[in-house]
């Protein structure tokens, strides 16, 4: 009888573990396809310029508007997430992005294409922090940093989907076939999310009653006043912005026009970007879990390495050697897992009922910075290149990153000092030792 009872317990445990990983896989798929939608315009930059007769400044406006919508929605999405749950938001996000891609597939006029990217930005805004909430609900606290890193990095495989198969469809079958296929994939993910995802395990405590508007604003103020939230925001801003601007819009034109690479070679470097991030991410996640008090130093080192790599490339007269461009891409790739550390700050310095709001504030940082960076690069190219992409104008345009890095490093330093002075009631202790985590016993 005892053996039979033990067997049942083991079987139930294994079934529970499988369900956790299935739910995670569906959430990951939603994010992966969302990244494909987000980056799908980057590989089509030159084709879009021809299709819509767009200048560099107008072309940057596509991505800037998409990022603007994404950034402006992060805090509202965080509030909606705390109120309605992740399953509904992930499903709605996938459907919205699919609608945007279908609209883009059929667009022949500039205003319609702009509206399509607004839809993509809206759906994208609903996805990542919702997936993070699923992870926080289903995994033990000790495992959350690593699983979060894996999610952020495996999700970047969506960039490979846009850099390789989507680009191949674009150049082979044409614009409409490529973006219609992307829309179909988005619809499939929406169906899977609605069927499989659940906000929390069975038996878990139900969330508190929906807050009143006054309570929502109060929670938003408390999340912002928490220095750990601001530390996460500055982290996300300093690490993510360069790679996002590069991958979403300016990377392929810069590599092709600024350094003479073919479009295939440029797409290959974008693939290297994803691979390098995937290699570095688990190590950063484990470091964050075991050395939470050293996370700020890790973030500062990532920003410094990116700045060093860009300095080396910009000082070399173009075209730069291929190996140096590869090192630049690898350095920028570290910014992806570095930005995920920002969400870990939000998790460990905020109580559970404010997790969505805090994650929304953090996510606003990187995408607001990427928005401003993408727009500024487009304006500088317009001013210095006379409406044309030139190696000299690109060299000038990329230097605007240094001001952003200086600002974010200052913000990280100041927020770090304040965040580590006092614990937050109800938050996960930011300095816990692995031995103190009951999930390991």
Automatic annotation (TrEMBL):
GO cellular component terms, semicolon-separated: plasma membrane
Keyword Cell division in record: no
Location (main, coarse): membrane
Ranges annotated as spanning the membrane: 20-37, 57-77, 89-108, 114-138, 150-170, 176-197, 231-256, 268-285, 297-317, 323-346, 358-381, 396-415
Record carries keyword Membrane: yes
InterPro entries per UniProt: MFS, MFS_dom, MFS_Efflux_Transporters, MFS_trans_sf
Keywords assigned: Cell membrane, Membrane, Transmembrane, Transmembrane helix
PROSITE patterns per UniProt: MFS
Compartment list: Cell membrane
One function term, GO molecular function aspect: transmembrane transporter activity
Domain of life: Bacteria
Listed Pfam families: MFS_1
Major facilitator superfamily (MFS) profile domain span: 22-420
Bilayer disposition of the protein: Multi-pass membrane protein
PANTHER family xrefs: CHLORAMPHENICOL EFFLUX PUMP RV0191, PURINE EFFLUX PUMP PBUE
Protein name: Major facilitator superfamily MFS_1
